[in-house]
Model the fold of this input.
Amino acid sequence: MIVLANDPNIEIPGLAPLPTSSIPPPFFSPYNPFTTLLASNARSHLKANGVLLNIFDWFDTETIAALNNGEVLSDLPSFYPVGPFEPYELEKGHHHLLTWLDEKAAQSVIYVSFGSRTTMSKDQIRDLGEGLEQSGHRFLWVLKGHKLDKDDTEGVRELVGESFVERTKQQGLVLRGWVEQEEFLAHTSVGGFVSHCGWNSVMEAARRGVPVLAWPQAGDQKINAGVLEKAGLGLWVRDWGKGGERLVKGEEIGDKVIELMGNEKLRAKARKVGEEARKAGMAGGGSDKALMEVIEMLTSKEGM
Done:
């Protein structure tokens, strides 16, 4: 469902109106297994002492306040914004890719990834490639493919086309498989991120202050894209819809990549998001204080 000007809203006390088209489709069927499981889990949440959130208060202050002051529901547990979570320090991988990035100018590369569970049609993959090429910007593209899990065995050249690989070998790199994404987002040459807006990706971009071109594909990703845009971290092209709703042409994609990479006002806003994310995790910062509150709460429960 593409968001339109007359898209009806769902009103939730204390929260901004939520467009109906942003609600995951399974929620409209009360008998869908996903919906019944989530409803059961939600009832269990009322028994919790608290809920830890991978977010920092500055990123969505109004929502967190509404949850905690009883505006949404009076009997919700406390919500603790303790993010963005620090990545576990693994041995650095993808050395050849980092070397490639080292050779590029600051903020000159667009990083493209739609996560490990998102698929695209072959036609959309080809048009995404055309858009990256037409943008003229350097790109690093982590490609999932159009099949899920075990059947996803096609190589890069099969998916994007032999001619694309040859034409763009001086402009960008395309790779398959899982990567340590924060390695790339933390690199000084990366100046933008085309993302499906899975929440982990949103927080990783926020932590590094990297502007995002939001292209939600499924689940809660439209909601995430709206939060991201409101915080100043990126752009959301609403009429692209969710994955598969329509074929977004290469020219459209290229134009938006150019807009993202050349928007200095947006870059400054994203940099501010990164600064606030880092401050939140410092000693005495908002997330640090929230974590101390959790420890205090758990300690007091143990002593009862």
Observations:
- The longest helix spans residues 264-281.
- The domain at 96-275 is CATH 3.40.50.2000 (Rossmann fold).
